[in-house]
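Tutorial, part two.
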Amino acid sequence: MQAFFLAAAQGQRLCVVHAPVDGQACRGGVVYVHPLAEEMNRCRRMASLQARALAEAGFLVLQMDLRGCGDSSGDFADASWSDWLEDVDRARQWLAQRCDGPLWLWGARAGCLLVAHSAARTPDVPVHLLLWQPVLSGQQHVQQFLRLRQVSEALQEGATGAGDGAGVVSPQALLRRLEAGETVDVAGYAMAPDLARGLSQATLDQVGLARQIVALEVVAPTQVTPLVASPALGQQQQRWVAAGIPAVVVGVGGEPFWQNPEALICQDLIQATTAALTQPQPPWVART
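Running the prediction step on this input gives:
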């Protein structure tokens, strides 16, 4: 593992690289794109474990803190959707200079929308997409994010005994502020209008000429096997296949680690991900 800062147009980006052991041929490159806001921190442990597993399997894995996130330059309020797309491009270029194998863009949650958009921006460059618990609608994700402030303010009013709801700002009101060009504070993160606009317009329908898509969704373990992903993700898979893109959607048993402040580990997800990138045929689907 190596950590370094990569120069960027607006400062620098913290990068962590997991490389195959000395003498092992590189099977391909993987760019990890993290989720939005606090979900990024809650996914760090899982992302790190997965990066190590992929490096042990022969992949060169680059994890980057996007502009305004983690230890990269800027504040969250400085970030725009185009900034983040440029960061993904920068990470792709760095890997392409060091690895001749296939390129995987690995997104988690809202990061899935970023990698899909990145693939669509460069249709002449073949990529593979690996999606963890993908956000299917950027617009819905923004609304859910804004709702966090409403919940927080309602809890504060309940704790102080006010209870009339006068101090609670609705997600719709926050959205109107964003549309008017105002930056809004939500759960300790200041979201700028440009970031909200770009995220709201993002979907998983536009993925360029992705060579293949592997989407893994964590679901509650049951006695029924194999586990089944959500109907919404299944419908998205049908749209990918109809567009001529090979796509596999798999349900993996585990807990929603991206929602929990504790560092939950989903070992089945790590195993399924590693198998998906190392096995040309997917017998691993039946096992999950």
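The chain has two domains: 2-136+203-287, 141-196. In part three we will examine how such features are distributed along the chain.
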